[in-house]
Amino acid sequence: MITTNLANEGQFMPVKTLIVYRRMSDNESCRGSSSSPEFYVSLHNIRDGVVCEGHPVSKKDVYELCKLAMPGIDTVVKYVPENVISYVPFSKYSAMVWWMPAGRKSMFFKIEGLKSGIAPVPATLFTVIRGRLHVWALKANRRPTPTTPVYFSPFFNVFKDGTCMGNMKAPKKTDPLETRRWEDIFFGSAFTNESPPELKGITGNELWSSLINTKKKFPASCLKKWGTLNDVLDNLEVK
Questions:
Q1: I need a surface site. Which of 81, 123, 134, 174 has the fewest CB within 10 A?
Q2: Each residue of 111-155: pLDDT tens digit?
Q3: Which are the contacts of 203, defined by CB distance < 8 A and separation ≥ 6?
Q4: Is the C-alpha dihedral spanning 183, 186, 191, 193 positive or negative?
Q5: What is the DSSP letter of 109?
């Protein structure tokens, strides 16, 4: 009988296997030119170390294998609010993308020369992956499409690997119904001089000192382009 030993986990016995077949061709340059699939995948049970007759892998098989490999995968069908753009419900590997319309927010600063108060903010794109919040800006005040331009965040404390939220406690789960809580945590924490925003023709200090406690609109012209929504989605590597 074939077994394998995993450190600190005991012995495991194989019970299923996947076999990937590749189409044979005398002319390698012709591979993939046919409308027929180039690969075929079958699922087989293993009994007493022997691979049994298999069957073509179905969507149900893939789903069941995912549950075996990732026991924490979310199997409950949930309501997804309109502001949510993308959601991957994979337990600790969860990822979520959503947007917030432009508006006015209370902002708190621990930066010399900047007073706390209410200020206009642009439409904002948020992502959460592995419990880390990432933030970008949008010029268009509507739900973005894959080709919508995305801009660097105009806020302080936004780093390449996520935002700094001080001692604010983030939600334990990445849930489509928790987007407002993430937003409240981001805007509820005090902005410091760490990681000044990348802007065009103005500094972060100058921008927010000119907007705090005024009735001005957020000047979208100062936003510096980062990429597109497609680029944001491509950077969400759930591994």
A1: 81
A2: 999 999 999 999 999 999 888 899 999 999 999 999 999 999 999
A3: 196
A4: negative
A5: B
Type of residue found at 117: G
Judge whether 74 and 27 are in contact, CB under 8 Å. no
Question: What does the block give as tokens for 130?
Answer: 């592995």
Coil vs helix vs strand at 127: strand
- Single out the residue of 236, 206, 230, 220 nearest to residue 137, CA to CA: 220
Q: How far is CA 46 from CA 56, 59, 82, 193, in A?
A: 16, 20, 45, 60
Percent of the residues in the chain that have a pLDDT greater than 90, as a whole number: 56
DSSP 186: H
Three-state secondary structure call for residue 19: strand
Helix spans in the chain (H): 59-69, 179-188, 204-211, 229-234
pTM, whole model, 2 decimals?
0.73
Token duo for residue 148: 């919508």
